């Protein structure tokens, strides 16, 4: 662990980059290259293991990890990050009065809370975590008990948490603000290296498509499509999404990306695509019917057309 931290320290000093800090004006990320990122990941894993070992098995189980999401839930629900001046502080008395509780002392921003205040995507991520993912996660075991095979898109923890028979995106469609927030959260997802869009643009031989057509099925607000179009400007990229998602999406000037309203549960209307891209569609439960049309029903595509799947694989 010491050797890895030395690598990070040396790189930051050599490049005159700021060191990690909890201060509100601290760096958002360390701006380190892949080889140094590997050292950072090793340190994080080692310190987590050390933390677990030093606690011992009993204290490790006794920890109230479930309470950790209470704090971002409070920040999200009461919009606390927006109520604190970015470069200043507010008294707890004034802040408490603003949200209807009693307290004293002063409340400045930390580096993390400032991100919530400054960055709409970060705020969307926090909101989606505490209002969508947390309630659903609590219902995972119940959902597996009720639907062991989970064969349908509405047989999920999300369905139980929201007391609905509708699929995930149908629920979001009923609330545009909720849908917009989730879209922002998914956009934020791609800002970290682990889920960076470079894995899409660099991890697949897109050059073979040349000036062909790529359909990004369930491509949300187009982050992946825009990344592809920027690196491969000759591609014609079509993002297919539900009406409410398309309505909240914007095409970028000079990029060959178009949005098209299409329900993945319906037959594919475009029959001559060079690549049909499924990216993270499994994670929202939309994959079952969509794959049936492509794989089991055999949607006819031109010779040489490809089905590209980019998904998260859990290590068993």
From TrEMBL:
It comes from the Eukaryota. PROSITE patterns: SAM_OMT_II. GO terms for molecular function: O-methyltransferase activity. One of its GO terms (biological process) is methylation. Residues 207-281 form the O-methyltransferase C-terminal domain. Keywords: Methyltransferase, S-adenosyl-L-methionine, Transferase. PANTHER family: PUTATIVE (AFU_ORTHOLOGUE AFUA_4G14580)-RELATED, STERIGMATOCYSTIN 8-O-METHYLTRANSFERASE. This is O-methyltransferase C-terminal domain-containing protein.
């Amino acid at each position: 662990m010491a050797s890895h931290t030395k690598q990070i320290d040396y790189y930051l000093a050599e490049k005159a980059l700021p060191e990690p800090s909890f201060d509100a004006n601290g760096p958002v990320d360390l701006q380190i290259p892949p080889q140094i990122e590997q050292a950072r990941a090793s340190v994080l894993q080692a310190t987590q293991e050390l933390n677990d070992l030093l606690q011992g098995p009993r204290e490790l189980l006794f920890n109230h990890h479930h309470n950790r999401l209470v704090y971002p839930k409070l920040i999200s629900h009461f919009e606390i990050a927006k109520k604190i001046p970015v470069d200043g502080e507010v008294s707890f008395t004034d802040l408490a009065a603003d949200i209807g509780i009693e307290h004293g002392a002063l409340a400045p921003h930390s580096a993390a809370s400032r991100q919530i205040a400054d960055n709409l995507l970060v705020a969307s991520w926090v909101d989606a975590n505490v209002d969508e993912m947390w309630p659903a996660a609590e219902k995972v075991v119940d959902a597996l008990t009720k639907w062991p095979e989970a064969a349908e898109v509405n047989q999920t923890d999300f369905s139980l948490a929201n007391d609905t028979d509708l699929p995930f995106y149908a629920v979001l469609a009923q609330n545009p603000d909720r849908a917009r927030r989730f879209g922002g959260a998914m956009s934020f997802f791609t800002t970290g290296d682990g889920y960076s869009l470079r894995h899409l643009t660099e991890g697949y031989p897109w050059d073979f498509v040349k000036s062909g057509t790529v359909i990004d099925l369930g491509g949300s607000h187009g982050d992946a499509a825009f990344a592809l179009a920027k690196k491969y400007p000759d591609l014609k990229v079509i993002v297919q999404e539900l009406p409410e998602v398309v309505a909240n999406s914007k095409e970028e000037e000079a990029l060959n990306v178009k949005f098209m309203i299409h329900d993945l549960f319906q037959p594919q209307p475009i029959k001559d695509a060079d690549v049909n891209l499924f990216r993270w569609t499994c994670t929202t439960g939309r994959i079952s019917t969509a794959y049936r049309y492509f794989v089991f029903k055999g949607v006819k595509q031109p010779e040489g057309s490809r089905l590209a799947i980019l998904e998260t694989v859990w290590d068993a």
